[in-house]
Write a structure and sequence with these properties.
Strand order of the largest sheet: 1-2-3-6-5-4
Helix content: 25-40%
Number of strands: 6
Number of helices: 6
Largest sheet: 6 strands, mixed
Number of domains: 1
Distance between the termini: 33 Å
Structural class: alpha+beta
Length: 226
């Protein structure tokens, strides 16, 4: 594997290193979520203990402390497999010994607060309905699409500031993002780091402390890291 690039957060531009991919960093109220490109599938991540493969360089993305972050266990969440089955994986957390806040590392194959993996939703949006994971989770995927379309107008206004020109309507959001960013996991990383949003809405974990005020969690994974 060659040396990958990384998406630099507008909040923190220090380099963070991960053994199987690249990391994006986002500041939010009280702690930091890092989304990283992971070469493992959810099944491989589970078998190999992917949360143990995460390694970070010194420096806290929240307070700027230059010391070494300390591993701080993990939290568990659900994720769908390539067959559409549900498994439980662990997400790595680190602790800053200066500000005493945690930093969690979410592989980009997973959506924030949602069970279905990114690749399955992308296949659904592409019309690949014969895939076993799409067939098994079609009802929930339709809910995801409705949620994306409901948030579409707001997202269009946000991204239009960056590109100067937005797609004609919410139903064209995925073709627009695919052209701009490529795969959906890359689009998700870029939306989070550049605009502090996802295709489903805004979340506390992607906002600064002030912006996070009043936001709610509406996903289906039932996991709130602490």
């Amino acid at each position: 594997m060659g040396t990958p690039g990384f998406y630099a957060s507008p909040v923190f531009t220090g380099v963070v290193f991960q053994q199987v991919g690249t990391v994006s960093e986002v500041m939010y109220s009280g702690w930091v979520q890092c989304i990283y490109h992971c070469s493992l599938s959810p099944e491989e991540y589970l078998v190999q203990g992917g949360h143990r493969l995460v390694a970070v360089r010194s420096g806290c993305p929240r307070c700027g402390w230059c010391g070494k972050l300390r591993r701080h266990g993990s939290y568990e969440r659900g994720i769908s497999t390539n067959a559409g089955l549900l498994i439980r994986i662990h997400i790595a957390r680190f602790l800053c010994q200066s500000c005493h806040h945690t930093i969690s590392y979410l592989p980009a194959f997973a959506f924030t607060y949602r069970l279905i993996q990114v690749a399955t939703f992308e296949a659904f949006l592409e019309g690949r309905f014969q895939r076993p994971d799409v067939r098994r989770r079609e009802d929930l995927l339709r809910q995801y699409r409705r949620r994306m379309q409901c948030y579409g107008n707001r997202l269009l206004r946000i991204v239009q500031k960056r590109f100067g020109r937005a797609p004609p309507g919410p139903d064209q959001m995925w073709p627009f993002l695919k052209t701009a960013y490529g795969a959906l996991d890359s689009a998700t990383c870029r939306l989070v780091t550049q605009f502090e949003v996802t295709v489903f809405g805004q979340y506390r974990c992607h906002q600064t402390a002030i912006k996070a005020k009043g936001l709610r969690i509406d996903g289906d994974s039932g996991v709130v890291p602490t």
